[in-house]
Design a protein that fits this description.
- The protein has two helices and four strands, in the order βαββαβ.
- By secondary structure, the protein is an alpha/beta fold.
- The chain has a single domain (17-102), classed as Macrophage Migration Inhibitory Factor.
- β1 (3-8), α1 (18-32) and β2 (40-44) form a beta-alpha-beta unit.
- The chain has helices at residues 18-32, 71-89; strands at 3-8, 40-44, 59-65, 96-102.
Length: 113
């Protein structure tokens, strides 16, 4: 199940969040190759955040998935989620940082008996 957690210093009061949730869900499902119903999206606003020495609009995101992550997927997630945040919340892509984790990376399968 992919989980997307995005924190931002902008206020989300009065912002219609449903289209943002829908767009992020569809994008992540498509990029990682998982069904949309398995994607969880958490969006938190009005957080104390400073980036590049100032408090202008910025966001930090994290995507955690059990499988489906490789270098190309990471690049696509960064680009796509950054574009969504820029379009929907006016957060410049240069002020968005994304951490991507595959929980199965480095896990060896159980030995066959």
């Amino acid at each position: 199940m992919p989980c997307v957690y995005i924190s931002t210093n902008i206020s989300l009061d009065g912002v219609e969040l449903e289209p943002i949730f829908d767009e992020i869900t569809k994008a992540v499902a498509s990029i990682i190759g998982k069904p949309e119903r398995y994607v969880m999206v958490i969006l938190k606003g009005s957080l104390a955040m400073k980036f590049w020495g100032n408090k202008e609009a910025a966001a930090f995101g994290e995507v955690v998935s059990m499988g489906g992550i490789n270098t190309q997927v990471k690049r696509s997630l960064i680009s796509t989620l950054g574009a969504i945040l820029q379009e929907k919340l006016s957060i410049p892509t240069t002020r968005f940082v994304l951490k991507v984790t595959d929980t199965t990376a480095g896990v060896n399968p159980a030995p066959k008996l």
